[in-house]
Amino acid sequence: MGHSTKPTHKKCPVKRVIMAEEATSGTNRGKTVEQCQEMIQRSFRIPMVKFLREHLYKSGCYVGNNFIKAVNCEKEVAGGYVPGKGIIVCSNHVNIQDEVNQVVIHELIHAYDDCRATNLDWTNCAHHACSEIRAGHLSGDCHYKRELLRGFMKLRGQEQECVRRRVLESLKGNPNCSEAAAKDAMDAVWDVCYNDTKPFDRAP
Ligand SMILES: [Zn+2]
């Protein structure tokens, strides 16, 4: 029996996982696809977006203007990253520029993780959790001002608590992670991933 130890690069029938983020202002009407597309273009002027695109490029992944698309989403999500394809922003679930900026920044961190790691498996709960921890922490999603707008008033320890809550929320969208598996995976990788601030020197 001559079986090779080398991994085969066949197209694997993995379930498509889309890293999606909870929408924050579900009650508002949202924007049209055209308006949202303009907001995406505006987000490209933000230093943090420029910085992430630059580092994606340096890591060998080019993020062109078409990489990020506005679409209408059925699910209550603000946006998502589709591995190997690009980023979507849900026009019908965003209302202000800051929300679009946050989605773009958050998803660019997923794209960066995808780009720098050759063996990242989004179907693996721990891998997915790690990227959500980083994206939640580094994007400023959990800045206290944004949390106050969401109606969360607690200030002490709020940042980590907010990241945890949103990581679990995102992992719900992964068909491979049960609620218990998601929590275990998050706890197991928390310290390493929360402290991994690349490509930033420290959490912005
Ligand atoms: Zn995410």
Q: Describe it for me?
A:
- Helix 1 packs across helix 3 and helix 4 packs across helix 7.
- The protein has a four-stranded mixed beta sheet with strand order 1-3-4-2.
- The protein is built from seven helices and four strands; from the N terminus they run E-H-H-E-E-E-H-H-H-H-H.
- It has two domains: 105 residues, no CATH class; 81 residues, no CATH class.
- It has 204 residues and is an alpha+beta fold.
- Zinc ion (ZN) binds next to strand 1, helix 3 and helix 4.
List keywords for this structure.
alpha+beta; 4-stranded mixed sheet; 7 helices; disordered N terminus; binds zinc ion; protease; metal-binding
In short:
The protein is of the alpha+beta class and 204 residues long. It has 7 helices and 4 strands; from the N terminus they run βααβββααααα. The protein folds into 2 domains: 12-116, no CATH class; 118-198, no CATH class.
How does the overall form come out from the CA principal axes?
A: globular
Number of H- or I-type helical stretches: 7
Radius of gyration: 17 Å
Count of domains: 2
How many β-strand stretches? 4
Amount of helix: 40-55%
Low-confidence stretches: 1-15
Please write the string of helix (H) and strand (E) elements: EHHEEEHHHHH
Give the termini separation.
Answer: 54 Å
